[in-house]
Specification:
Radius of gyration: 25 Å
Shape: elongated
Order of helices and strands: HEHEEEEHHEEHEEEEHEE
Largest sheet: 8 strands, antiparallel
Strand order of the largest sheet: 6-11-13-12-8-9-7-10
Oligomer: single chain
Distance between the termini: 65 Å
Length: 300
């Protein structure tokens, strides 16, 4: 019995040492979100811009880990977000919260009372959950599966922006691109397209070509910012996106998850083809885009 009691005491002491001195979080909140990790990641980054933060939200080695430093009065609270996909449309989110300056007292109080620290944590996380729910009502992604990026000859303008600025870059250059082509009697041959040539998922920056498919001819305007190339047919994973084109990159993440779940090697260079002109009105969910993620050739 003495051995059992001594063993139990050692286990208790080890647990206390772990809880007070090793465990990094003072309080943990878990919830399930009805969307995929990429949408949560991007929503967190946009939501972070509305808060009183010490520094910009920081992404870890993958899109599944993020860290915030939030200011509450004289206190700095660290929010460590972990996102794990459950299936194609559901994710589990864990938020580990700690206050470096009051960690010991928080851990001492949390198990026995509903502290202001806990209430503030729940209020903050609930605020994000409401923002996320509102966002996910405004778009829809439908995975089609394997398909082909259609070939086309395009006039294009190369741009370097963030994912969030992508649609603004399109709008800013749309009139110039189309007017130059129309003035030179160039014949259009398809829908406006974006070809991403570089995607940095750490800082959400992209290089992309805003393109208009055309019929190649001798009438093409030369000496402007417009360039010309052929987008070649290629095997790809395809999705349909419905919603505001500002957030059409949500489909990129959905396709990455689909590729991972099905062991398909892909290139992080999405192609978007836009079926709707937002200038004609309609609700966001009426706007459609085809999204392609190229499949890597086996010998690459």
């Amino acid at each position: 019995m003495k051995k059992i009691g001594f063993g139990a005491l050692l286990i208790l002491l080890a647990a206390l040492v772990w809880y007070f001195f090793i465990k990094t979080s003072d309080y943990t909140i878990r919830f399930t979100a009805n969307t995929f990790p990429g949408a949560i990641n991007q929503s967190l980054k946009l939501w972070d811009q509305t808060l009183d933060t010490v520094a910009k939200i920081r992404q870890g080695e993958t899109i599944y880990k993020l860290e915030q430093k939030l200011r509450f009065g004289d206190s700095i609270h660290y929010y460590h977000w972990s996102i794990a996909p459950i299936n194609d449309s559901t994710s589990k989110v864990t938020v580990n919260i700690n206050d470096a300056n009051h960690s010991f007292s928080n851990k001492l109080s949390v198990p026995f009372s509903d502290t202001d620290f806990e209430k503030r944590g729940r209020k903050t996380v609930t605020n994000f959950i409401e923002n996320l729910r509102d966002h996910t009502k405004k778009f829809k992604v439908k995975i089609i599966g394997e398909d082909e990026i259609p070939t086309s000859y395009v006039a294009y303008i190369p741009l370097k922006l963030t994912q969030f600025q992508k649609a603004g870059g399109m709008m800013k250059n749309f009139s110039f691109l189309t007017e130059e082509l129309v003035e030179n009697d160039v014949e259009f041959n398809g829908l406006p397209t974006i070809e991403v040539t570089y995607w940095n998922q750490d800082n959400d920056s992209i290089h992309y070509n805003f393109a208009q498919p055309i019929i190649r001819s001798e009438k093409l305007p030369i000496g402007t910012d417009i360039k010309y190339k052929r987008i070649f047919k290629k095997r790809a994973l395809k999705a349909e996106y419905y919603g505001n084109y500002i957030t059409s990159d949500r489909a990129w993440y959905a396709l990455l998850d689909y590729a991972k779940s099905n062991n398909i090697a892909v290139e992080p260079t999405p192609v978007e083809i836009f079926h709707s002109n937002p200038n004609f009105g309609g609700t966001d969910l009426d706007w459609k885009a085809e999204i392609y993620l190229p499949i890597k050739v086996q010998n690459e």
